Structure formats: structure tokens, C-alpha cells
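Morning, I've got a small favour to ask if you have a moment. It would help a lot if you went through both lines with me. Thanks so much in advance, here it is.

***
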Amino acid sequence: MSGQLMPCSPGEIGSLFLFEKLSPEQLGQLCSAGRVERFEPGPVYTEGEPATCFYVMIEGTVVLSRRVGGDDVEVNRTSQRGVYSGSMQAYLGDRVQQTYNNSMRVTEPSRFFVLPAETFSAFMQEWFPMAVHLLEGLFFGSKNTQRAIGQRERLLALGSLSAGLTHELNNPAAAAVRATSTLRERVGKMRHKLGIIAQGSYSPEVMANLIDIQERTAERVAKAPVLSPLEASDREDTLADWLDDHGIQEGWRIAPTFVQGGLDVDWLDQVAATVGEEILPNAIGWLNYTVETELLMDEINDSTARISHLVDAAKQYSQLDRAPYQVADVHELLDSTLLMLSGKIGQQIKVVKEYDRTLPRIPAYPAELNQVWTNLIDNAVQAINSVGGEGTLTVRTALEHDRLLVEFRDTGPGVPADIRGRIFDPFFTTKPVGEGTGLGLDISWRIVVNKHHGTLQVESSPGDTRFQVLLPLTAVDNDTTEEPE
């Protein structure tokens, strides 16, 4: 937007703090190369447009804003003389994309000293060569440092996830190995017990009854109810008494297995009535091995299913063999991330899921959203651990107007108000030296805002901190999308 051209006074320009140390000759060159423009209330330039000019306010009121999702978020409003904006990185030339990184408007008639970007760059190179070299080093050095630390943070996160996944996989794998070894032993004993029964003078009818009881016992094991510890203990005592009364040795060892398999006194009465008293001990021993083998096979099945579930979660988390950009269900992404981080979350932190399952799938970069969830969950866990390690992490999804909300709420100490505006800045961290890079929330912010055109915000009070991610329900076209470092 062009304003009304007005005379340029070197004396007035020199009264601005940015130019107060320049010589009269330099101020004259500025006035000759630049111009003074008067703008009526309204926009001066728009974020994302080519940065063609450098603006210094002489008088008026200026408002700077950033585009976040579909909204313009005000980041600064001031009437201070000499404030500047626009092509402030023109001295870097074509080594960086020269576009306006914010939008500027004025709320009252305002005057600016306007300098073309090329001219501003030339004056910087000519008048302040040392400062230009220092600024270039600071700019590119910061970028390189941010990239290197970002990669390091990803490696640390990967190591933590790998350790947690290894731990989670080790438990069911070890259980399956133990169950397989025990199963082999029980099957051997069962064959031996069957041989003893077969050597007896049992009629084919009795043997058929034994086989039938074995099959029906296996069916009962598959349908065994889940008992409370008190209920299980009472049933074990009752079964142990029954076994003792019927001359079964070491009934107290057999009773817990039968209870776990869903057998009761009524069932054992049916067995006794079917096989007869003379072979009851051998029959009970054979049924004990039957129940044990069924329980062991259930344990192996549960363990291998757990391993398969963990592998599926790892593939979901990493988005292995999937397109980077796709229509995704955020609940699947959240569940896989929570499972991958379950070792880090631990047993003392209660995880509550408040999902709105009616929410639609959304276009997104799932692997990068998983990185956002990881960073926010990790911060919540650390916050809860800082106050004793016991608390609640609530993950909530909902429809917020025309956007999808994903909220992470923790019962930690909260984010102090004086630093709340800085937590998304690169390298800002409240963690001790060596324990945080200060890039987790910065990376998350850029993934949500720059890549998904959403919003990342925080609401906090002691015992109730909420990080809220708002994502558009439909794809947003933007040619200037910034890739996270």
C-alpha cells in the first residue's frame, strides 16, 4: 500500500533513535534515497509479500500481527517514535527469502520514513560493515545451532522412545518365553499322566468320559471369570478342602490353578461322579495339567498379541511406509504416542482420555504431529514429576468452532505468567543446564502453525496447565509453508 508522499527533513529523521548517531551527510543521503509517506488508517504491508521496504515510524500508531491459522494475531501495538519494521534482513541478500514476516497496519494517520530494501542493504554494507558481519554471523550461526540442537533433541527423544519400547517389548517377550518353557514341561507330564491312566483297567466308556471332561474343562478355562483377590482366596480354600476330603494329595497346590481356570466344587463333583473314586486322583492330576496348559497358552497368546500391538503402535508412531501427508485420525496418533511413552509416563501418573470420537479425520503430516504430541506429553510428565511424580495427564479432543482441538492438561505447578509469552521462543527453557534444549516447544509451534496452519497456545494456573493445539478440518494452501528444522 502506498501513502501520501511528504517532504523529508534530515533534522526530523535524525531525531529518531535509530538514526541519532549518523552524521549530517549520512542523514542527507538517507533523505535523498528514501522518502516520507503518510498513511491513512489501514494496512501498510501484508505478511508473506516480498519485503521491498524498510519502515521507520515518525509519528502515529502502528500494529504488528502474525497470521496464525485463519486468524491475524496481534503481536505488538505502539506509538513510540522511531520503531521500525519491514525488510530488516535486507542486508542478508538472496541468502534468505526476503518476505515480510508479519503484517503492519496503522490505526490513525501516521508518517513513516521509508527506505527501499536494496538501498537499506547498501547503506548497511557501506556504513556498518563490521556490524553486518556480526549480524550475519549471529543470524546464520543461530540457524545452524538451532538445526544441530534440533537434530540432537530428536536423537535424544528417539533414544528415550527406543528404551521405553524395548522395556515394553521385553515384558511380554519374557512372559512368552517363560510360559513356553513351562508349557513344554506340563505337556510332558500330561503325556505321562495319560500313560498311567491308559495302563489301568479302564473301560472305553470311562476313557471317553475322561476325554469329554477334559474338553469341557478347556471350554470353562476359556470362559473363566475375573475374580477379586478376596473372591479367589475364598474359592481356593473351598476347593482345597474338597480335594483334601477326596484324598487328593497337595490339594492346596492344585486349588489356585483350578480357581484361575474357572473350576468350582460343583464341577469337581461332576468329575468325581463321572470317573469314579478309584481313578479320581489321576483324573484330577490330568485335569490340572489340562487347565495349566490352557492358561499357559492364553498367556502366550496375550504376550504375543501385546508384542504385535506394540509393533503396530511403533509403525503408527513413525508412520513407516506411509505418505508424509495424508488424512489421519488424531486419536490413533495420540494412542500410539501415549503407548510409546508409557514407560516414561510411569505408573504414578494417571492418564485420562477424553476423546470425542465423532470428530472427522483431518489432512495432516501425522509423523510430525506425533512429534508435537511427544513434546507436549513429555513436558507435562516433567511438570508432574517436579511436584512429587503423582498427578493426572488428561488428553482431550473436541470440536472448537471450525477447528479440531487437542488439549493436554496436567496437574503440575503451572507456567509462571512472566515467562508464558516466551515459552515458544527458540532456546528458551526452564530446565536445568544440560537437561533441556529449549527447542521442543519451538519445533512444536512451527509444526502446528507453519506447517498445519493451526494454533498452539497455553493456559496455565497452579495445578491446571493446558496446552491446546487447534488444527483446521480441511487442507489450507500456502506456498510459503516453512519446514520445521
Residues 129-199 form the longest helix (71 residues).
